[in-house]
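During data preparation, a discrete fold description was generated, as reproduced here:
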Amino acid sequence: MPTISVGRDRLFEAIGRTYTKEEFEDLCFKFGIELDDETTEKAIIRKEQHLGDEDASEDEEVIYKIEVPANRCDLLCLEGLAQALRVFNGTAPIPTYDLSRIDKSSMLRMHVKPETARIRPYVVCAVLRGITFDEARYNSFIDLQDRLHQNICRRRTLVAIGTHDLDTIEGPFTYEALPPEEINFIPLKETKQFRADALMEKYKSDLKLKKFLHIIENSPVFPVLYDRNRTVLSLPPIINGAHSAITLKTKNVFIECTATDRTKASIVLNTMVAMFSVYCEREFEAEPVEVIYPNGESYIYPDLSLYRMPVPLSYINGIVGVTLSADEVTNLLNKMQLHVENSESKEKETLLTVSAPPTRSDILHACDVAEDVAIAYGYNEIQKIRIPCLKPQMCNEFSYLLRMEMAMVGYTEVSPFVLCSYKENVSMLKRKDDTTRAIIGNPRSADFEMPRTRLMTGLLKVVRHNKDHPKPIKIFEVGDVVLLDKMKDVGTSNNRRLAALYCGSTSGFELIHGVLDRIMEVNVIPFVSPGDENGYCIQPSDEPEFLPKRQARIIYKGKNIGYFGIVHPEVLENFGIPDPCSCMELDVESLLL
């Protein structure tokens, strides 16, 4: 989960009361977040520089590191966190976010050029009028952009945020995509003009910005935003222009978010607007901007409308495990900044209409509403009930008993990968092409080309990686192999098997045969003569991975369910194993029929 660092005293001031550390930890737990650490600014710097710990002085600001849910973008800054906790505590009403009431003809406009479809096709914009910054607010404003970039923006690949001093630029604005040699501007924190391609070369040595260059550096066109005077606002997702840089004296902020995902861009814009509109002359109000696309479509941003969904009361009570009335659920949801506009009873079913504000982009389904009810109600307050025990599947229960028995006869369980290479599964076992195998489409590595069709491959690989281990090595696995199956809708089926391997200088046919006899004995399956289907017997086999005349197939109820024998020296050489090995593998599911 994301971790944010906020000053303790500023946070308590914003919440409206002070807490002891224990009290604040309890509040965080009730709200569904966690106080991860209490530190100071100097301690953080000392840790980054690998310096020794020192006792904090009384004048050092205490920093709280708080873990917040990854889907709660509104909690990534002090402003949003304090607002949420005030509402949760009942000391503040749910804020109502609104747009300035201005004529469409008076709105600022952003014109999108057709070429942007080749690189970053979407842009959303908004204006915060009459904002008041101080140093702490300014730092929080910048920090929120960084945290959004790292989380929902996926390191600027999906969305890149640009913020500008509106009084230094003039609309209407244009969003274009041009060859890099045609883009010239003074970037942020620079004093001279750079061409875009030269700027990319310069930033290859910049520790912060070089990790974003790959997003556009190989594109024939770069995205760029201009005002009406052709002043560059930004070169997203890399850097803003110095001309429109925000300072502590900035009063009007223009926010633009370029993106490859319009939905995420809207979420990011709404978060920026909602969190910092609290510092505007008109609290919780933003000025809209019209975005006009080449096909003539136009959109008004930000979209601060409520997201409404009907949620049955019975669903909430059922999933949380409580019995609450509609009024009680309404009060609990209000603590989580969710409105319940009305409740209707239809056919003995109470239906709640829940409205989520633009800050709660995590509310997508009725289960999200139920989760908020559970948080507000208190997980520790939910009555504990005993869940009826579920009966395990017969195959899994039988597999557990086999594991116990194998352990008791001195074998150690291993868990190799289910995926292997074609070479390991076929040619290294001296087998011809396996027609029962499935394959992985476009495998990322040659080591994981297909799911295994026998467990023996994995056991041999384990021995290869542990060949210096004291002998004998006695290992086993109870696991699945994957076989083609036309009767299944996915085209394959899993088959549970047991495999055991003995590696040592005295490894012989009789050792692995004894393991087979023990498994059959504990399952009350007698050894019988060939043709008798009341037990099991062994018959000569001709498997290429075993020595000729030192191997056998296992017959149970007239069906071949496995094989065992001494592993062929060529197979051992293929796997790089210097010691003799004997191996057994059988179909577990066949013993349950």
Summary: The first strand starts at residue 3 and ends at 7. The chain is about 25% helix and 25% strand.
